[in-house]
Every structure is written in structure tokens, then in C-alpha cells.
Backbone:
């Protein structure tokens, strides 16, 4: 049955349309998380100072995590746990 559906033109067309839609949803979610984690919009609204717009500690942590992941092969769960511990310690 699975091979019949796999070879179906209708199923292939449906998945062809779902791929860009799911990619767009993932990108939108990622941008939303980045906005919340890396920007301090509330503080910027009050002070109107461009230096208050960015959460520098979170940006540095994101860059360090990116560099570590490029050089080493860590399991994503370990990265999430380590990031949570660092966030608690440094009160991000």
C-alpha cells in the first residue's frame, strides 16, 4: 500500500506543495525565537537607545554555540541542556 501511495502523482504533488509551506513555518518560528532571545524591544521602546536594542550576552552565547557546533559534533539535546544551564548561571 505504501508503494502505491509513494508512486501516486497526487501524493507527490501534495508533498511538493507541503515542503515550501513547512519550510516557511519553520523559518517564521526561528525568526520569532531569535527576536525574543536576541532583541530587547521593551527596553529599546523606553530608552530609544540603539545600544539597548540587543541582548549582548545572548548574542555572544549564540555565536559561541555556533562556533562550537561547527568544530565539534555534539548531540543537540546536550547543546540545549548546556545552554539552559549557562542561561540560569548568567541570568540571561
Residues:
Amino acid at each position: 500500500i505504501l508503494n502505491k501511495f509513494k508512486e501516486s502523482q497526487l501524493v507527490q504533488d501534495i508533498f511538493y506543495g507541503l515542503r515550501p509551506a513547512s519550510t516557511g513555518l519553520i523559518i517564521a518560528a526561528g525568526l520569532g525565537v531569535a527576536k525574543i532571545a536576541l532583541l530587547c524591544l521593551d527596553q529599546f521602546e523606553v530608552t530609544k537607545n540603539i545600544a539597548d536594542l540587543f541582548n549582548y550576552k545572548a548574542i555572544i552565547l549564540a555565536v559561541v554555540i555556533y562556533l562550537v557546533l561547527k568544530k565539534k559534533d555534539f548531540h543537540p539535546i546536550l547543546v540545549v541542556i548546556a545552554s539552559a544551564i549557562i542561561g540560569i548561571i548568567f541570568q540571561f
Notes: The chain has a mean pLDDT of 90.
